[in-house]
Amino acid sequence: MPPRTAYLDWNATAPLRPEAAAATAEALGHCGNPSSVHRFGRDARRALEAARAQVAALVGAAPAEVVLTSGGTEANQLALRGLPGRRVMVSAIEHDSVRQAVPDAAVVPVAPRGIVDLHALDRMLAAEPRPALVSLMLANNETGIIQPVAEAAQIAHARGALLHCDAVQGAGKLPLDRARLGADLMTLSAHKLGGPPGVGALVVAGDLPLMPLHNGGGQERGRRAGTENLPGIAGFGAACASAADGLGDYGAIAALRDAAERRLGAIAPDAVVYGGDVARLPNTLCIAMPGVAAATQVMALDLAGVMVSAGAACSSGKVRRSHVLDAMGVPAAEAECAIRISLGWSTAAADIDHLVEAWGALYARTRASAA
Amino acid sequence: MNASAARFRHRANSAPVYLDYQATTPVDRRVLGEMLPWFTEKFGNPGSVTHAYGREAEAAVEQARAEVAALIGAEAREIVFTSGATESNNLAIKGAAHFHRAFDKDRVVTVATEHKCVLESALALEREGFRLTVLPVDAQGLVDLDALGAAIDERTAIVSVMAANNEIGVLQPIAEIGALCRARGVLFHSDAAQAVGKVPVDVDAMNIDLLSISGHKVYGPKGIGVLYVRRRPRARLAPLFDGGGQERGVRSGTLPTPLCVGLGAAARIAGAEMAAEAERLLGLRRRFLAAIQARLPEVRLNGDPERRLPGNLNLSFPGAPALALMQACPGLALSTGSACTAAEVEPSYVLRALGVPEALAAASLRLGLGRYTTDSEVDFAVDALAAAAQLVAARERVTAAEARPT
Question: What is the DSSP letter of A2?
Fold first, then answer.
């Protein structure tokens, strides 16, 4: 019998939805460059535009507003670097691909509860003589805390600024309407919502004159050169349609997450949950086991077959202290003990039992050895 | 009913014969088989190395990296995964130029027949203040080594010359250019999207510092490419974009495991089968050319007849405009040139660079033969093209005669 596993790292990547797997596999079986004028090319172009419409529909945008990219990172960079001349302001809890997009970005602080400080944003915009571009994520990838994007957009627009929203973690988990949010630019990633890796989108309102990162052929209306990743895009489109249909599942997912939070809290009265008292993604639980380094927890859980993470899945494999918790004013010693548990549509009650068991065993061991 | 009519009838209701392997190639079934599990059951993020699913994905990505490296004589750690050859070319050219600007190197040298994304990257640098030299080619499509040598100076940041042209298949003298650049201490980038897997490419023997590879041109998936970045002596680059710091900071973004695996498998298969397949394609190409010229002696081959990809022909059909010709051949999937610019009606800038007159350039087709092209497809295509060319040319003559004032 294979060892029992519980995958609880959905914010790092989600398994492919069956509809997306079918669409991707189907497209992989066809040969055609969407820019070619022959039948293979025309078929590819039709599939491309159908998928683009599905992506657009997820966020209430027009298909022409969707620029398909190689993923969320590229889309974030395209948004922030594509409008030169604007002063870029990013919240302190943004993903690295936003924080590091432009070297001289101003940082908008967040309040201790993990929500961006809108008064500070307004002050910063008022003091900035240049036109600005504000980047605020829909929901944080580590804590799941939902940000007041619509309010930030109103403030930004009142000051003549544009708003970019990295919606990578929120899309597919929350209802999403680009216009209601007031986002001039919005980033999506396929593999976070059940599409394949290697594809994402930047949704661009109207005709903002984006300067491309990639020069070349005139694909994506000149905003992103390169032969389109059609199988990936087809899977992305199908995943968006399926995610929109599956939003209702998140009530049950939230119930599982809340059960996990309650049970871990019952085992460890000293555990700290981040974002428990504010609006949060239904699938995310960021929790610290004081005195036990996140790396130790993640390793112990991995040995027990439970897959979680100590923050963003980045390159190094090193567990770094979270800049998100830092920005929230969490003391370093405590932040170093925080892990991220994230659920998805195929998470079962047994997965939560498995987590609670493994986490509880680790907690008991560490408390016993400390005693 | 003769044989060709029978073939034509047989084809009438099936998919067109695919003769556009330079635009994109189908994913090899063997490649697809290796990729699929990484889409579904093995879906971990290769950056999530703190758990089992992530490590399993990371190991697969690293194996793919080694497979790509082996195909070009590189080390695995010199392979940077990108979203495709367009990104690789942008990263190589802009990245090298931006890095070396701090060392008073502000010049970029490339060639008139490069892929559009190379030329556009170079033009973007020119708009930033770099000085750009675009070298001409001769009537065969080859760059002149003396002119290249003369264009390089101590302020040259990068020389970019493609290994094989995407429209005319012409193979540039990459080893000679590499030796020249190495001797002069200038970084050498080659867009090898069309060459890798089709003809031997060895980054050490050819002194290549940076080399672009495309997945979907070698029977691998779309959405994945590679930039080879030499470590000794080190080719230094500024990244195109930043983020999670994947790929040693040169290229951020979650690595798409199934696509990396697919490119690795495609590279392994190409390496094993390249010699025999090149021989087979060369035979098909010769058969095609001989047969079409037997039917239409006026047909002219563009680009060097020998120094070209085994699977490429670029033919001019005097008097038969390419678009009309393509419309008259619904049973063939053809193109006039680069797919990226296929929708444009103006004649190919590549052919113009060879000095092909405008009317002839506008009567030219690219024929890409590949792994699944058969003898009978070649014969069918020759029949269809020859008949169509005669029809179109006759129609054009009538139209011209009617338009002539009496």
Answer: P
